Amino acid sequence: MSNPRPRPRPLPIPPSQISRNHGSGSSCDSSEASGKQTNVNSGEYSRTGSPFTPPQTMLTSPNQPGILVQSPMSEKSQFIRSTPPKRPRPLPIPGASSSDTRPPPVKEAPPPDSSSSTLPLNIYPKHLKMLVDFQVSTGQESFSSDTNWRTFAPNHVAQNLNAAESKRQDLIFELIKSEKQYLYHLEAINDLYVQPLQSSSLTVVHPDRRRPFTQDISYRIDEIRALHQKLLTTLYEVQRREFPLIQGIAAPMFDTFILDFREIYLSYIVHIPVALAVAEDELENNILFNDFHESIVTRPATRGLDLKMLINAPYKRLSKYGELVTAIIEANTRDGSVSPTGDSSSRELESELLREFAASVRDVVRLGTFQGSMNTPTPAQPVNWRSLVGREAPSPGDIEEKRQSAMLELITGEMLYIKDLESIETVFIQPLKAGSTPIIPASKLNTFIHAVFHNVQEILTLHKQMLRKLFKIQRDEFPVLKSITAPVYDTALNWVDPYIEYFAQYPMAVLAIDQELAQNPRFKTFYENTHYKRQDLKSLIYRPVDRLAKISFPLVEIQRRSPPTNKDGLETIPQILDIIGYLRRATNVVVDDGTMKAKLWGYKQSLVYPFAGEIETCLDLDLCLGLNDPLRTMVHSGKLLRESETAGEWSEVFVLLLDNYLIVTAPKEKEGVTKYYIEKRIALELLTLGSFTNAPVPRFQPTSRGNMNIFGRGRSIDHKDYLYPLHLVAYASITGRPTASCLNLILYADGEESRTKWRTELEGAIGLRKHVQEAKMAFHLTALSDLETFRIAPPLTLGPGGSNGWISGRVHCSATLTIFNEEGGRLQLIAAGCDEGIGMALQGDMTTWRRLMPLKGVTQCATLDDFGIFLVLAEGDLYAYPIENLVPAARNFIMASGGARPRTFQRMNTKSDVHHFTIGTYQGRTLVAYVMKHGTDSIVCVQEPVVGKISDSSRNNSWWSSARATGQGKYWFRDYIQPFKVASTAFDCTFFKGKIVIPFNKGFHVLNLSNLDLSVVLPRRDESRFGSILARRCEASRPLGIFPASGSDLLACYEDFGFWIDRKGDISRRNSNGVPYIIEWECKARKVAYHEPYLLIFTPRFIEVRNAHTGQLCQFIQGDGLKSTCNGTTTLNGLTTDDGSIREDQIQIVMDVPPQNEYVIVGNQSTQRLWQLVPTVPLSFDGPPS
């Protein structure tokens, strides 16, 4: 009888290795626990060449050391020696029945010797060899769906496991297999797409786009691949070491993966939308790349390796991790799944690590998806913090959750705000610039874009920088953030200037859109059909206004939910809110100002200037009203009423109050378009407020027909049926052709509140205008006489005046002359010509005024200092007097008073009365030109003095003695040219750059002294060059003078207006529509004078000072009875020389002393005072209007 077959011992299972006290396996920790060394090594799973070449993974044979085990597909290998592992102590099979520990017979391995206390590790050489082959295999078939843990496990092990443990082993194997497949996909991105596209021999993608394209589709792929190569190698080690049953994978996954993957995967997931968009764009627009891509996905070995699928693979892998790890955790806790040692704590620790791993992966997926949505058309908008982190995340408490939700709301708001601002460029600006047929003409496109979008890119840059910092805080601290206020505070410090600039321009942006919609049908179609998230262009440019108003809401909530000692709630957030509060207050002011400016520009397009019942198409309102000034604003506007010419009727006017003018217009609507016809314009410097307290008047009054007017037909009378008068007084207005009389303007408001509002705004605008003009005056006044020097006698009352005063009559002219005292010193005198004679005084000493010549009717005087001659025009005669006869010596001047008329003089005209004279130089010779009236014509005479200069001592000898004896000096002057006739009435004559300019009713006769045949009449008024309306205005207005402007331009001045001409007499300055630039005076001018670079327009009540180069209104000098006495044309000190250089002019004026001044009342006589205009610092000049 044969011996019975010995009962086999239970088959050993590789020991469970507990790593780092976490209960999971590793060779290092196992040897430390047992005191023995187990050395099962393997080479790294590394990439060589393409994904179709197997990785060179080197394994030690389980049967004997030094034997290389590799996949049959491997072409090369590297020999790696290792010592065979020592035999571990046999462990019971997990899940086996406690009553029967006998395993079923296994054919794969014979039973070991019964005397052996331990079994060798390589008791399953065949199965381990199959596992190693799987690990080193490559290609898509190596991870087919039918491969699982049971494929490699010994039959008796698989059959003796309960369902729970078997499921767990299947899940672990599935995780390792899917990791291998994932690494294969990472290799494919580089080997199938990046490397071929970067090859110079393949021109699938344009060379300019090749590098950025490959960088986008392979963003951080190399780092991800290296990370997962390391992880897979570690899992392979665990798989081989613990074969056939893996007891734990948490420790290797945690140690190898979790510490490095967060930052890499967050940035990659955020970039996925960019990479997908780039790939999609190339596939749609590049046929070559589309064919190249199609060849890859249809090739049998690479079938299905679509580029977009590969780009999405890392995101899907993280999601797969979550599923598998969660399933493994559930398997760990399921009944029947226990550790081989029976220690349940190791599985609990394993599950705890896996939960932490799953939570980290879940956080990366959720946060990456959230931040990556910034690269999609619509950013994510989680409802609150809990919806972002998921229900699995532990709660930090209700209050803290609300605080986290407020921080998330701020970040989400920034994301949406930035996407909206970015859409301005992509949805609106780029389409406006693109296209062969422009939506907006190229000449005005850049101006429109700047007006509408202004500095929105600057604001966008600030908020992008802030969002990057907020995202970094999220990545570092997610899911529970400590604080996000630091980047908000840093950015808020830089908000003030950009936001104030944007808000100030915002009303103008809306106006620019409205104007383009009204004028451009193509833009209107584009505007109506172009939207971003149902927002039109106006809504998008309003976003900065809206964001600034709403950003404080989450900040206040964060402050409320912060702990009492939190720095955010105590310091940072209050400071941010202070900045936002200041910014909102400041922007409210600039928006109000911008709104008024926008309204002004809107009205500007509808303002029409009437002249003589016609539309004045040749008047430029920008120049006339100063609308081209970038600081020009509208203070107030509204409808008022005035009495109509028809009794009992009211007419409506629309009044605009600018910061420089009050404009009264008559609105008229035609074909749905309202035009505002200017009826009156009043400079604020000339405006005075009358009574604003008069009692209201009934609005509804019976008409001459006995019926109520249109405002009150059939209505009852109540407090709304009264109108409240506004009384305005102005020195000047323009109503058709302006007049110099005062304007009393009475308008009516429909309520007391409206009247009070108008009064407040008018007082503020007038006061502000006064301060602004005082700060930029062109001239200030210096008194040349005191309050009692010149007295105007009442009618029929002539006689001597009181102390220092004399009955002079009105002052008409003045001049500065030079005398020498006995010591040879030079003294300056002021001479004034009056109705009752000529008075003189030492300049700078107003107490020395004396009457020296009782010459009646003096209207003009001048000095020829170099010749010692004083010229006087009195009662139509032009006299020349030796200055020495007038003032024999300086020491006698103060004592001289009321002397007789000097005996030595010359009457220069012989027959006709002289109306005007002027002095000047030509080719170094001093000339005197005067105009005499001869019937309806004028005679112009030009003479030169022939006496010696004052420095010539021979002047006191016989010639002067002879002149005194005869009482005349017929040889003092001689004709320079023969007198010539002007077939019209000459209004004046002046020297201008070697020529004589004679204003007459047809323009300006320019006399060429070197050749009279070259004389011309300016301007040339044929309608082809000039325009019919301007030509008619020139005929209806009196010419006053021509003066130099910038370059070669001349400023032709008439009594109502002025315009620029060239030397040929043609219009030299026109706007873009070809309309001449015209300067419209505030009132009809009596005289004009020039003081470089200013033009002075004289009226009886004010002097209007303008820049002659630009037409800009610079100053008003107001006074009663104001008149020019010396305008630089009657003194050699103020002439234009032959070379065109300008000498210093002396502008002197006279004005009535206000009668209400108690110090000037002498009996029943009023007085005048002489002044000199002294220039201040010149205003800046930027050239003529464009």
Describe, in short, the structure shown.
With 1186 residues, this protein is α+β, with helices and mostly antiparallel strands. The chain is 37% helix and 21% strand. Strands 14, 15, 16, 41, 42 and 43 form a 6-stranded mixed β-sheet that branches. A 5-stranded mixed β-sheet has the order 3-9-8-7-6.
Provide the descriptors you would attach to this structure in a database record.
disordered N terminus; six-stranded mixed sheet; alpha+beta; 1186 residues; disordered C terminus
Description of the structure:
- The protein is α+β, with helices and mostly antiparallel strands and 1186 residues long.
- It contains 29 helices and 43 strands.
- Strand 38 (1094-1098) and strand 39 (1102-1107) form a beta hairpin.
- Helix 14 packs across helix 17, helix 16 (485-492) runs parallel beside helix 22 (567-604) and helix 17 (496-519) crosses helix 18 (521-529).
- It is elongated and about 150 Å long.
SSE inventory with pairings:
Elements: H1 27-34, E1 59-60, E2 68-69, H2 125-136, H3 149-152, H4 155-160, H5 163-198, H6 207-217, H7 221-241, H8 250-285, H9 287-298, H10 307-333, H11 344-372, H12 385-389, H13 398-433, H14 442-453, H15 456-477, H16 485-492, H17 496-519, H18 521-529, H19 537-541, H20 543-550, H21 552-561, H22 567-604, E3 607-608, E4 610-611, E5 614-615, H23 621-625, E6 634-643, E7 650-658, E8 661-670, E9 673-683, E10 687-689, E11 697-698, E12 722-730, E13 743-749, H24 752-775, E14 779-783, E15 790-792, E16 806-807, E17 811-820, E18 826-834, E19 837-842, E20 850-853, E21 858-864, E22 869-874, E23 877-882, H25 883-886, H26 890-893, E24 906-907, E25 914-922, E26 925-934, E27 937-945, H27 958-966, E28 973-982, E29 990-992, E30 995-1000, E31 1003-1008, E32 1016-1018, H28 1023-1026, H29 1028-1036, E33 1039-1044, E34 1050-1054, E35 1057-1061, E36 1078-1080, E37 1087-1091, E38 1094-1098, E39 1102-1107, E40 1113-1118, E41 1120-1127, E42 1147-1152, E43 1166-1175
Parallel strand pairs: 3-9, 15-16
Antiparallel strand pairs: 1-2, 4-5, 6-7, 7-8, 8-9, 10-12, 11-12, 12-13, 14-43, 15-43, 17-18, 18-19, 19-20, 21-22, 22-23, 23-24, 25-26, 26-27, 27-28, 29-30, 30-31, 31-32, 33-34, 34-35, 35-36, 37-38, 38-39, 39-40, 41-42, 42-43
Helix pairs in contact: 5-6, 5-7, 5-10, 7-8, 8-9, 8-10, 8-11, 10-11, 13-15, 13-21, 14-17, 15-16, 16-22, 17-18, 17-22, 21-22
